[in-house]
Amino acid sequence: MGKGGSVGADDERVQTICDAIRVIPDFPKPGIQFQDVTTILLDPTAFKHTIDLLVERYQGQKVDVVAGFEARGLIFGAPLAVALGCAFVPLRKPGKLPGATLSEEYVTEYSTDRIEMHVGAVQAGQRVVLVDDLIATGGTLRAGLDLVKKAGGDVVEAAAVIDLGLGGRQKLPEDLPLFVIVEKQLDE
Ligand SMILES: O=P(O)(O)OC[C@H]1O[C@H](OP(=O)(O)OP(=O)(O)O)[C@H](O)[C@@H]1O
Ligand SMILES: Nc1ncnc2[nH]cnc12
User: Fold this and answer.
1) Which protein residue has the closest C-alpha to ligand 2 atom 3?
2) Which band of pLDDT confidence, cut at 50, 70 and 90, is reported for residue 3?
3) What angle do CA 46, 52, 53 make, to 5 degrees?
4) I want to staple 138 with a disulfide (CB 3.0 to 4.6 A). Which of 50, 107, 147, 168 is the partner?
């Protein structure tokens, strides 16, 4: 698999998905153009295209685990894991997982947060795909990479439905290739 990438420009499914994203200005604060992915979920065609494009990216690769970020990454990661026939691991906000956890702190566009993963969810040597709805600064994806590395896993690639174009992709470490479906150029 190459060092990340995006869907072919001629794939009309991308435009269908992009058109389904509702943009809400000044939420949660002035200046933010909030990309509302719930409207993708309202459109069965757009939702299926999104999952299909992710499946096409990873089927045939040896993926042992899909790890999805709470909350919106869970929505896109779980169906991908089912389609690939592999395990799904939720990366959750602090205090939500009942078992022993590994934890990583990170900074997002408008907050400092922490994500946790169950100890034992990812085994040493397993090949992992990280899934989220979008990348802004890249802080969340970097934290996910660190969590999986702590467990001895090997992150094959990170996948995001949307890249906001805020430079997050450029800030990702060399060993974290990124696959994106919809590329935006926001100037938040
Ligand atoms: O690239 P970054 O700057 O890290 O930002 C991207 C993250 O921000 C959002 O999560 P958030 O926790 O804000 O919202 P959610 O709970 O609705 O998923 C989004 O779902 C990504 O996980
Ligand atoms: N502009 C944005 N829209 C939706 N989710 C986000 N998370 C961080 N920035 C965001």
Assistant:
1) 34
2) confident
3) 90
4) 168
Give the CA dihedral 137, 9, 50, 127, nearest 10 degrees.
-70
> Which residues does residue 131 pair with via DSSP β-bridges, in sequence order?
68, 159
| Residues assigned a catalytic role | 72, 109
Return the closest-CA partner of residue 140 out of 90, 91, 185: 91
Q: From the CA of 137, which ligand is nearest?
A: 1
Q: Any idea which ligand is nearest the CA of 27?
A: 2
DSSP string, 118-175: ETTSS-TT-EEEEEEEEESSSHHHHHHHHHHHHTT-EEEEEEEEEE-SSSHHHHS-TT
Q: Is 40 exposed, middle or buried (0-12, 13-18, 19+ CB in 10 A)?
A: buried
The pLDDT tens digits of the residues spanning 130-151 come to 999 999 999 999 999 999 999 9
Q: How many residues does the chain have?
A: 188
Closest atom of ligand 2 to CA, residue 164: 1
The pLDDT mean for the chain works out to 95
